[in-house]
Each structure stands twice: as structure tokens, then as C-alpha cells.
Amino acid sequence: MARSTEITITIDDLDLEGSGVGMFNGRRVHVPCVLPGETAQARLVHESPHRQEAWAELSALTGPPSPARVPPSCPAFGRCGGCRLQHLA
Questions:
Q1: What's the confidence (pLDDT) of residue 50?
Q2: Closest by alpha carbon to 42, among 80, 4, 2?
């Protein structure tokens, strides 16, 4: 996978930092602000040279939202980098 590649991914789990994690081409891909059960369009930004893992930026949610998704209470959610799970009930 090349950096900046746009992918469609379904998220199955959350990592320790609160990013959604799904599989794409044999790699675990971490995508912030996406919850398990959601499908997203994302842009790859980094691939590990040591493990089958990659990180991506969310471009858009493409399927229905998770039933666990709630509106974040902080207006700075997503911009400041703190409170990474405010969108999770």
C-alpha cells in the first residue's frame, strides 16, 4: 500500500489510544474517530516497516453510524487531541 492511498475499511476493534482498528490487505489499520462496526473511507499516512500495521486519517464515514456513537460534548473534539473517546457512549 502506498502512502496517501484512499481505502475503505470496516472497523472491528479499538486500540489502546481509542482509534478504530480494521484489516486491509493483511495489515491492521488504525483510524481515529471510527468505532467498531462502522465503515469508513480513510487515507493512509504511515505504514510500519516492522509490523503488518498502518495508520490512516478519516476522510468520511460511509456506512451507518455505530449505535454506540454519540455527539461529543466538547466543541474542540477532534482538533485538540485530548479526550479521544467522547464520541463513544
A1: 96
A2: 4
